[in-house]
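Hey L., structure's done. Input below.
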Amino acid sequence: MSVTVLFIAALALGFAPADELLSQEPQTIQEPQGNTVVPASAATSPVNAADVEDVEAEQGTSSLALTAGVSPRQHVYTLEDLDRLRARYGIDPDPREDVKAPDFRCLVPDPRCGFTVELVATTAYAYRIRQGDISVSDDNQRWHSGRIAYDFWLDLPAVVAIRGNTKFTRLTLGPKGGVIASDSDDLWGNVGLAGRYWFGRGAWSPALEFTTALTFRLREQDRQGSRGPGRSPLGIAADLGFSVGGWGALVVGAQYDGSLVRDDVPAAMWRSAAAQFFVGFRGNILWGLPAISAVGTHAAVRRRVTAP
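Output:
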């Protein structure tokens, strides 16, 4: 009997009244997927929408970090995160351009290139003037001719522009040199500077070209016949062109040849001042047409044009 009483007393002590259960603190609920313990009272607390957005972004970056092999504790931001951050603070969207590789490995000028090495040929119509007897007023010789130039350009980036993660060349400036041919056996050399200003960022972007150079005679022909190299005064040549990409440009320019009339120079070597104004086409010889045009014009001018 005593054993039965003790057993019933032990069962009574093992249960708590209902009012005591209601007065106890809320228990914690453990999520089966993780180790985080969240209070049960948090389910009824108000939630801030911004906090939910940050938590979702953090969860997305954590999954991205796990797939990339980065620790979840490190902050890894996606492109969408950066866009939301820029929109929050009123920053312009990040330009993500699909930049393609330049054509012909920068042998044709391109704003996506750093420095460029190019060979150009110029074919132009020239109106030439040469000074005659200085003792006679207005004794000038005028005739229509052609002008053909073959130049080597080294384009170095002088001004660059950065858009996103890509660097574009805005202005190039570098040395140039080559030869200039015309009618008869006249041949000049030139050494100077060449530049190009790009208005865009693509392969067919418009550009403004400009050159200036010192000129000197390499070979000439006088009235008595052909002559070889001789003493030559210096001249100057300059032109301005508008191009579409680095393929070709319409150019207009002028050239002035200084005079060589001095007492310490034999009279047979005296040279009168001369000038020419020209308009034509200049292009990279890599795609063929500028080279064919220059060679054909050179041959035609030498056969059909005779200097006075």
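Residues 51-94 form one domain. The first helix runs from residue 2 to 14.

-- N.
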